[in-house]
């Protein structure tokens, strides 16, 4: 069975399969069903009257109430069944069967089909209401666990998208968060190993820990260390009731974007590198020595801060590995960097929507993993006063990291 996939964008809209859900087809379905049922009723009735009496078409009218199963209400089915009964009577009388047991049998068949349609529609409606309630709970949990990031934060424009590959679910194990700390925006994007409720539980824990330590710790590397310690404590506690808890960890990027300097500072904890557009150039912000994923107990020295240029009108694309690992029917991976290069000039919101739509098309509508994507564009120019005051720090810091091709 193909999993139903959902996307929650930073505007709060829920889309399916990368495209906005359109309810027009759903609304037209009952009308189309009634039109087809009416056409069958008219065609079979006229045909039964026209053809010779030894060709009995009245039995085909059982299709009329069956076709109304897609209609929304009981009145439609009952009305069409009543008309079909009149039609079968007309056909049977024309065929000389008004004294035959065939006439009541044909009418009884119509009534039985009508009753079955009504019963199964009732069961379907109960299932739909249950599913709707589950989806409402899922959406509420999604908003509580992973609320869309603000569209604007300081001098940044932000757009987010989240796709859960779980059937009829909006939540999973991918996470993102952003916190405004003094004159800096700190961000997190991560991917919890595993799936199910345990992954959701770990995702909620790491987001809560990030929101706390982002304000408490001064140095970015201390934020990563605190996150790792928090995840390890949770793994140790879970180990008392789950023998596989030791296998749980979270890959993550921890970032900070200062207001006063055109840079982004990144710590990678085993997470896929982010992408950056600068003018017409697009590249990966490759971290040469990533730290272990959160929860595996990396040493404090492993959490190295990597600094990259991030100037006005530059765009960062943060993502989880679901974006890179999506395959087309031939088995080819999604060319994320190439697609980002084509879309990087778009506004973040449109960039995200078009990227996720393109991902869906590439994967044939069957993306098998959760995908979280965050686009960040710097709008406000760095403060001149701040740059002059600390300009002696910016140059050497950038030169220390030759992997930054945009420096």
Short description:
This protein has 407 residues and is of the alpha+beta class. It has helices at 24-50, 63-67, 74-94, 102-145, 196-216, 220-238, 321-325, 336-343, 348-362, 384-399, and strands at residues 6-9, 14-16, 19-20, 152-153, 156-164, 174-181, 184-192, 250-258, 263-269, 275-278, 281-284, 306-309, 315-319, 371-378. Strand 2 and strand 3 (19-20) form a beta hairpin.
Describe the model.
The chain has 2 domains: about 20-140, no CATH class; about 150-400, 4-Layer Sandwich (Phosphatase 2c, domain 1). It has 10 helices and 14 strands. The chain has helices at about 25-50, 65, 75-95, 100-145, 195-215, 220-240, 320-325, 335-345, 350-360, 385-400, and strands at about 5-10, 15, 20, 150-155, 155-165, 175-180, 185-190, 250-260, 265-270, 275-280, 280-285, 305-310, 315-320, 370-380. Mean pLDDT is about 80; it is low at about 1-25 and about 380-405. It is α+β, with helices and mostly antiparallel strands and about 400 residues long. It starts with 5 loop residues before the first strand and ends in an 8-residue tail after the last helix. The strands form 2 sheets. Strands 1, 2, 3, 4, 5, 10, 11, 13 and 14 form a 9-stranded antiparallel sheet that branches. A 5-stranded antiparallel sheet has the order 6-7-8-9-12. One of its GO terms (molecular function) is protein serine/threonine phosphatase activity. Pfam families: SpoIIE. It is an enzyme of class 3 (hydrolase). Its EC number is 3.1.3.16. Keywords: Hydrolase, Membrane, Transmembrane, Transmembrane helix.
